[in-house]
Amino acid sequence: MTTRTGGVSQAAWASLNLGDHVGDDPARVAANRARLRERLPAEPGWLGQVHSARVVELGRDAEREADAAFTRQAGQVCAVLTADCLPVLFCDRAGSVVAAAHAGWRGLADGVLEAAVAAMQVPPDAVLAWMGAAIGPRAFEVGDEVREAFVDRHPEAAAAFVPQPVPGKWLADLYQLARIRLDRIGVQAIYGGGRCTFSETDVFFSYRRDGVTGRMASLIWLT
After folding, report:
1. Which domain holds residue 206?
2. How many Cβ atoms are within 10 Å of 39's Cβ, its own excluded?
3. Which residues are CB-neighbours of 110 under 8 A, at least 6 positions away?
4. What pLDDT score was predicted for residue 154?
5. What pLDDT shows up at residue 87?
6. In CATH, what number is assigned to the domain containing residue 26?
């Protein structure tokens, strides 16, 4: 996963902004992506992320409006962009398939992680998942509708919400919600988590904190 440092963008997008849809100078975004490309085996398979549960296969599907991608081809780079949403990277123990998912609360509630694992077509207990930096449980305030979207489907998700003094407001733990969803489908090897894009100002972009801001990339590929 990239951080916000090491690029050429300025002002609200300083400095390694990789998002080409957030108001940054296109030339600077291109320069930042070129710097990233130097470290990769190929150009990343950038997605048109729409907070969905849609998964595409890189190298086969021409459609890129999706929030997760997978591949079995060496050198194909799966990538998702985030700035508070949860990026999750997947591989299987045999090293035959990888996937990347962008899990905002809507996509997470709609099953984007489950869809990504299903697309990999390997037993869930053979899958390893890594959670990148997202907005942390002390910073992500949500309303009743977000809590209900999870709890109505899985009652155990109630443990991931802490009530606030204002009625109808909750602090949500995206990491815990992701673990619950993955555990339900049999993915037990779950790593990462624990960082907070909102509070770690010098390290990460945060849409909730800044409004206008850049995007970081989480990437995975087979060698």
Report:
1. 11-135+187-221
2. 8
3. 52, 53
4. 95
5. 99
6. 3.60.140.10
